[in-house]
Structures are given as structure tokens and as C-alpha cells.
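step=encode ok
step=design start
structure_in=
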């Protein structure tokens, strides 16, 4: 092999190596937990990725992704948790994921370096996995949490003294009402997956108070539960005794256990 052919061969090898390197992709690589809007653990600056966020160099056959993993709580008032992750995965795995079939574990992939910047809310909305719901608690019982403007007669999320706030809900909005001997309690929030919004998950008289984490739990106390499917729809100021309004849409039907 003469010197000219050797030089051409060397150049071919170098260019081939460069093409492999250039095919690699850089992705943000981190995760954080969303807990019903009240507390968020984000030690890796993952919620809003920036130059300080951890990143990874991925293989030539990989893409950047974001992923939401939704976990229900054991009780209604506890809400739930969403683990939101960023990273890289094989293109085949990206293609195999279908958020309509696996809404609790939804993956979205993208093309390009550091393209996995979508916020949790954007990811959920784009995949039709969320709606806003009001969250608060009202109680006549002394010493029990009672949020201003959450009550049965003065509900107002926009009032200046309101302690009502809106959370991203991957499920159904609900209102629950318990009437004690001399007091009333009302809880508004998000039922992850709508799992308690089905007749077979409720006792004849309603949902037991301990399912709401009720510190004043009495075995005879029951909550009347009403669920709805529109944005911030849980604004009703009263529920009829024994009435449980259960509404579902085609989209949310996949959340029901």
C-alpha cells in the first residue's frame, strides 16, 4: 500500500470516527418528585433544567426523553405522587411506549441535544393526562385544619384571603362531605386515577372517614363523595345526602382501577 492510499485510508477512519461521535446526543439526566403541589423535592435542579443540571452523553441509537410515573396514595386526602424523570433511552423503547395504554408510566422522546426540557405540566397536558382541581379542607371541628374560603357557603378560590389552590390532577376532581353531630367537614381535591370514584370501591353509605386520613375518625362516620371531570369543577357548596355523582369521560376511563 503506497503512502497515498495509506493517507486516504487513515482519513476515512478518522472521518468515520467523527461521524460516530457526532451522532451521540447530550440529554438532561435527573428526576424529582411532585407531591400534589404542596412539597417538591428537587435536589438536582431538574424541575427547570439549566447548565447546572446533571446531563449524560447517550449512544448513537438513543434519544432524550421525559417520563412521568404516577403513584396513588392509600387515602383520598393524601393525593398522590408523580416521579418525573429526564434521561436517554434506546429509540426502540421510545417507539414502544403508548401513554394511552400506560397512563401511569408515560414516556415522551425527542430529537436533538438537551431537547428533554418539557415541564411536568406540559408533558401531562400534551398526553391528555391531567386537569386542574381545587384542593383544600373546611372543618367546623375546633383544632382541625380549615382553609379560608373552602367552606359550604363561602367557597371562593379568588378571594384575597383564600387558602384554596389548584393542583395538577392525573385523574378526577372530587368533593367529599362528612356531617358529624355538631359539625361539617368538606374536602376538595384530586383523586389520582379516579380509583375511589366507582361504586364498587365505596360502602353503601359512602367512604369511611379513615380513608381520608381523618384524625377525628369514627367508624360510624362516612364521607359522601362526588367526582367530576372538568377543569376545577369541584366547586359545589353542598352535596345531597346519599348522592354520589360519578362522571367519566372516554379519556379518563383508563384511570379507573
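sequence_out=
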Amino acid at each position: 500500500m503506497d503512502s497515498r492510499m495509506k493517507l486516504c485510508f487513515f482519513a476515512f477512519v478518522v472521518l468515520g470516527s467523527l461521524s460516530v461521535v457526532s451522532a451521540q446526543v447530550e440529554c438532561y439526566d435527573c428526576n424529582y418528585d411532585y407531591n400534589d403541589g404542596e412539597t417538591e423535592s428537587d435536589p438536582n435542579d431538574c424541575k427547570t433544567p439549566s447548565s447546572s443540571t446533571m446531563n449524560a452523553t447517550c449512544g448513537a441509537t438513543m434519544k432524550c426523553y421525559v417520563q412521568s410515573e404516577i403513584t396513588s396514595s392509600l387515602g383520598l386526602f393524601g393525593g398522590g405522587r408523580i416521579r418525573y424523570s429526564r434521561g436517554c433511552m434506546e429509540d426502540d423503547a421510545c417507539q414502544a411506549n403508548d401513554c394511552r395504554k400506560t397512563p401511569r408510566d408515560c414516556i415522551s422522546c425527542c430529537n436533538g441535544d438537551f431537547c428533554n426540557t418539557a415541564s411536568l405540566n406540559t408533558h401531562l397536558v400534551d398526553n391528555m393526562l391531567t386537569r386542574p382541581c381545587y384542593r383544600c379542607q373546611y372543618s367546623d371541628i375546633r383544632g382541625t385544619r380549615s382553609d379560608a374560603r373552602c367552606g359550604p357557603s363561602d367557597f371562593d378560590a379568588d378571594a384575597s384571603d383564600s387558602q384554596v389552590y389548584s393542583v395538577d390532577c392525573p385523574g378526577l376532581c372530587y368533593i367529599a362531605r362528612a356531617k358529624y353531630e355538631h359539625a361539617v367537614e368538606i374536602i376538595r381535591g384530586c383523586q389520582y386515577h379516579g380509583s375511589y370514584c366507582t361504586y364498587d370501591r365505596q360502602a353503601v353509605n359512602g367512604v369511611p372517614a379513615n380513608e381520608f386520613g381523618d384524625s377525628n375518625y369514627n367508624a360510624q362516620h362516612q364521607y359522601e363523595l362526588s367526582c367530576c371531570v372538568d377543569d376545577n369543577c369541584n366547586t359545589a357548596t353542598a352535596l345531597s345526602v346519599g348522592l354520589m355523582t360519578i362522571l367519566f369521560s372516554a379519556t379518563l376511563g383508563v384511570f379507573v382501577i
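step=design ok
step=annotate ok -> Residues 77 and 214 are 9 Å apart (CA to CA).
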